[in-house]
Design brief:
single chain, alpha/beta, TIM Barrel, 3 domains, 8-stranded parallel beta barrel, 16 strands, binds zinc ion
């Protein structure tokens, strides 16, 4: 596998020739996006409702293969103008090496989800201003796709166009987040993702740490030994009495190990199945696997973590990231709730386990807006960490809407209130509807203020499906009126994209600043 610094990473794509650049600029192309491919130049230009792909080549030369669009003649050459669709995204990724997602490797990385598909240029500005953090610019969970009616293809294609528009040549990752089924994994492979986050928590039985001996023993009886290619006797013999971690010794009491096996045995089988499927489809070493149990009810104990790492490794699973359920509460779009001292200690011990039994890096999910703990995350992980944010960029879009079109924001709020009870069911949020202000009662500044209050932020954060797609819950059909609300939202953001990107760069920048490293860090690159 090639380990490259993506910037200037060869191919024959480079900054445009003079004649090509002149033609592209005359055709309305964005100067930051111009790339020379052979004798031709390609770029993006903003149209009424989104990007268009344009390509120009001198009359005697061919326009790059694969790009489709309407042809015309200009500047002694041929101009092609095509849509920003999947075919043209695919062609661009084939032609331009730095538009292909790559492996993020160790060190600090951050994921920035984009539910509307318009955020990447704002994200790129934040990463430019905060060196040393590898960006994962294409990232969405299977759940977000189901709710927004988007696909993994849509997500990677939107990031591709955003990267080209921004002139970002330092590489980026693509994370198919919270995958629960083989069908999810296949859709992400097909779309070209390079990082896969497996979420096995639906297979984890509810076994609290303080469960009685009888309950724990019964749960241990149910461990699927044949599927784990294991037996109770070899399991018991596998573990030492304690691990010498760099955070100090960690005791491994038999009872806690049996409880861990009871909790996570089926999950290990599932993750191993997904991993082997990925390895067969993509080849070992050409993708990254994160395992996420962050959405479980109980905090992941150090012994649970040791169990997962030991058993996954025994089954040949090579994972690059682990998202435990940390102590305290990680609610969506608001700051950390809990004892920050206990959280810091939790990060230190989980990091020590990951260094001892991996190495792989810790991943902090629901990582947006947790400003009070970033210093502890950086110190505890020594910068070997992935910070995952998703919905906060959608909240910035709503903040932009509230500023430029209060009436549209009022409609968003009305739909959000109607959808909250259903939408909140699968998310960690605690906001109550009681006391939430009625849409009619809000002034323009009151509408903007919805993005400042933790409880109203949470309501807006989890109701994106109803707003974007007009869906009240998984499986229910979109209504025409609400479907048009999503289109209106995208259209308004596109009209005011400069304001959106500026606010987004500032907001995401606040997340990245505590992790920035002026010395920079190279990107692992193409798989
Ligand atoms: Zn998560």
């Amino acid at each position: 596998m090639a380990v490259i610094r993506a910037a200037g990473a060869g191919g024959d794509a480079r900054a445009g020739s003079e004649a090509g650049a002149a033609a592209i600029l005359a055709a309305g192309g964005l100067d930051t996006s111009i790339v020379e491919v052979g004798a031709a130049s390609i770029a993006l230009r903003p149209a009424t409702s989104g990007w268009e792909v344009i390509a120009w080549a001198p009359m005697a030369e061919a326009v790059p293969a694969g790009i489709r669009g309407a042809a015309s003649e200009m500047h002694d050459g041929r101009l092609l103008v095509g849509p920003a669709d999947h075919n043209n995204a695919l062609a661009l990724r084939t032609l331009v090496p730095w538009l292909r997602p790559g492996l993020i490797g160790s060190g600090t990385s951050a994921g920035t989800g984009d539910r509307l598909g318009l955020a990447t240029p704002g994200h790129v500005r934040a990463f430019r201003a905060n060196a040393g953090i590898v960006p994962v610019l294409a990232q969405q969970s299977a759940r977000e796709l189901a709710r927004t009616g988007r696909t993994f293809r849509d997500v990677l294609d939107a990031a591709t166009f955003g990267v080209l528009a921004s002139g970002w040549r330092d590489g980026y990752g693509a994370d198919a987040d919270h995958l629960k089924t083989l069908a999810d994994v296949n859709a992400a492979i097909d779309a070209g993702f390079t990082m896969f986050t497996a979420d096995p928590i639906d297979l984890v039985p509810d076994l609290p740490v303080d469960a009685s001996d009888t309950v724990t023993a019964a749960a241990f009886e149910a461990v699927p030994w044949p599927a784990l290619e294991d037996a109770p006797v070899s399991f018991e013999a596998r573990y030492p009495d304690w691990l010498d971690l760099d955070s100090g010794p960690l005791e491994l009491p038999r009872r806690a190990l049996r409880a861990a096996a009871a909790r996570f045995g089926l999950a290990v089988v599932h993750v191993a199945t997904l991993y082997r499927h990925l390895a067969a489809a993509r080849g070992r070493g050409s993708f990254e696997l994160e395992v996420a149990v962050d959405e479980i009810a109980h905090p992941t104990t150090p012994v649970d973590h040791v169990y997962l790492a030991t058993e996954l490794s025994r089954l040949g699973v090579r994972w690059t990231g682990f998202a435990p359920r940390f102590v305290g509460r990680f609610e969506k779009g608001i700051d950390y709730l809990g004892d920050r001292g206990a959280f810091g200690a939790d990060v230190v011990v989980h990091t020590a386990i990951a260094r001892c039994l991996g190495p792989y890096k810790l991943s902090v999910h629901s990582g947006s807006d947790k400003f009070s703990i970033y210093d502890a995350v950086r110190a505890g992980t020594r910068g070997d960490v992935h910070l995952k944010t998703s919905g906060t960029s959608y909240l910035v879009a709503l903040q932009t809407i509230a500023a430029v079109d209060p009436e549209l924001m009022r409609r968003v709020w009305r739909v959000a209130l109607e959808a909250y009870t259903t939408a909140r069911a699968s998310y960690h949020v605690s906001a109550a509807l009681a006391g939430a202000p009625a849409p009619e009662a809000l002034s323009p500044s009151g509408l903007a203020g919805l993005l400042d209050e933790p409880s109203t932020r949470e309501i807006l954060h989890v109701t994106y499906g109803a707003v974007i797609r007009g869906e009240q819950g998984p499986g229910s059909p979109a209504t025409t009126a609400q479907a048009s609300l999503g289109d209106e939202l995208r259209s308004a953001i596109w009209q005011h994209r400069e304001a959106y990107w500026a606010t987004l760069a500032e907001h995401i920048g606040r997340h990245l600043r505590p992790f920035a490293d002026a010395s920079g860090r190279s990107f692992k690159g193409e798989p």
